[in-house]
Amino acid sequence: MVRKLLIVEDELPQLSSQKFYFEKRGFEVFMTTNGDEALKIIEKETPKAVVLDLHLKESAVTGLDVLKQTTENHPDIKLIVVTGYGDNDNVRETCMKYKPYLFLSKPVSLVELKNKLDDVFDEKG
Prior knowledge:
The protein is α/β, with parallel strands linked by helices. 44% of the residues lie in helices and 20% in strands. It has a single domain (4-122), classed as Rossmann fold.
């Protein structure tokens, strides 16, 4: 089974290390630092899961925009929101309107994230 994963993260070192980590563990990884490109990848590749940073510097399309549009257009895609603003109740409340699969506060261990993704890919359907 192909385990398609999209990682949307604006910090390049973090993005590269996540891509390397998940590819070594059998995932087909797509990555971008940009919300608009994330939406294009979602349309073209239809990954089963998206690890999404909410705050995307230098991107007109925000992580919240990606969350909203993906939830509306692709309800089967599991969105794992990862943000440094997880302690902010307004951010969390706004985000939860779109029912992400998970909402995690940075820093997140890659082992923990992989375990959550394994659960996503092991689900039937």
